[in-house]
């Protein structure tokens, strides 16, 4: 019960990684405000947590709407008088498209959800955390902010931007005992990756040094660590959860042949 009596807000908590993080934080004793744009799935996350004797409440939240973000954090503060943890997780992948063909509205929407939404939530969370003299903020970036991702220029731009937000916020907020870190998941099984996995699961698992696709609980474990007391000296950092996927490159096959150390 590492997080006993901590209050957490998780965005996009109705599905995949956000749901797994919510479950994990609740299993460690936190009261989790499960927020999502979709009520039915957010409520289902709450039901799962409650079935496991955890504490959670659903609040509707579209992170693109700054007024709704403000009202949501106000509600949390009215209920609990404090806020310890913010997980900026809500996100969509957008439609894949070559860079010059991405519609302006699609580009703006992606940046609105991932970047503006995370900024609005961070801005509303910080005053409560400053009052506490401590806080944990985690921004969900992606391996796409390291390797780029063909066809997803809008998504990659948003995920790179979150690293800038993470690092500058970490510096600004360190004097108040607030840490700000980012997670960079690789390929994780969720609604967001169901399309690509339906076409290339075997190939992607084979290309991953640890030989499998990640699960939302792998990311949740990393998030829980960054929220724990053990991580109190870590800020402005990025934790990669990708089974080693980023390490693989075109040289590997050539080197295997050259050194005759192929595993096959
Ligand atoms: N799955 C992966 O492989 C992977 C890899 C790297 C990063 N990520 C990131 O992890 C996060 C979670 O992704 P996931 O794989 O769990 O996807 P998911 O589709 O399972 O979950 C995303 C959740 O965000 C919610 N959401 C969408 N728009 C919203 C909005 N405007 N306001 C509030 N909630 C909104 C959805 O309703 C959904 O519940 C995203 O930021 C995604 O970019 C995922």
Automatic annotation (TrEMBL):
SUPFAM superfamilies linked to this entry: NAD(P)-binding Rossmann-fold domains
Coiled coil regions, renumbered to chain: none
Keywords recorded for this protein, A-Z: Oxidoreductase
Keyword Protein transport: no
One GO biological process term: bile acid metabolic process
InterPro entries, A to Z: NAD(P)-bd_dom_sf, Sc_DH/Rdtase_CS, SDR, SDR_fam
GO MF annotation, one: oxidoreductase activity
CDD domains: SDR_c
Family: Belongs to the short-chain dehydrogenases/reductases (SDR) family.
Name of the protein described by the UniProt record: SDR family oxidoreductase
Species this protein is from: Ureibacillus endophyticus
């Amino acid at each position: 019960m590492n997080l006993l009596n901590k209050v957490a807000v998780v965005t996009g908590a109705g599905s995949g990684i956000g749901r797994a993080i919510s479950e994990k934080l609740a299993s460690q004793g936190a009261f989790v405000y499960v927020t999502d744009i979709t009520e039915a799935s957010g409520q289902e996350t709450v039901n799962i947590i409650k079935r496991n004797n955890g504490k959670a409440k659903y609040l509707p939240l579209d992170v693109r709407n700054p007024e709704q973000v403000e009202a949501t954090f106000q509600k949390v503060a009215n209920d609990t008088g404090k806020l310890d943890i913010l997980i900026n997780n809500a996100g969509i992948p957008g439609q894949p498209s070559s860079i010059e063909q991405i519609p302006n509205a699609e580009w703006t929407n992606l940046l609105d959800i991932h970047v503006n939404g995370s900024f609005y939530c961070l801005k509303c969370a910080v005053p409560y955390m400053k009052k506490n003299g401590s806080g944990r903020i985690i921004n969900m970036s992606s391996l796409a902010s390291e390797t780029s991702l063909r066809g997803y220029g809008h998504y990659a731009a948003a995920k790179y931007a979150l690293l800038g937000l993470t690092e500058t916020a970490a510096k600004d907020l360190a004097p108040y005992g607030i840490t700000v870190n980012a997670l960079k998941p690789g390929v994780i099984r969720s609604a967001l990756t169901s399309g690509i996995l339906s076409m290339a699961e075997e190939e992607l698992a084979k290309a991953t040094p640890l030989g499998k696709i990640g699960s939302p609980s792998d990311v949740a474990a990393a998030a829980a660590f960054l929220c724990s007391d053990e991580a109190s000296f870590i800020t402005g950092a990025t934790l990669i959860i990708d089974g080693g996927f980023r390490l693989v490159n075109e040289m590997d096959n050539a080197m295997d042949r050259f050194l005759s150390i192929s595993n096959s």
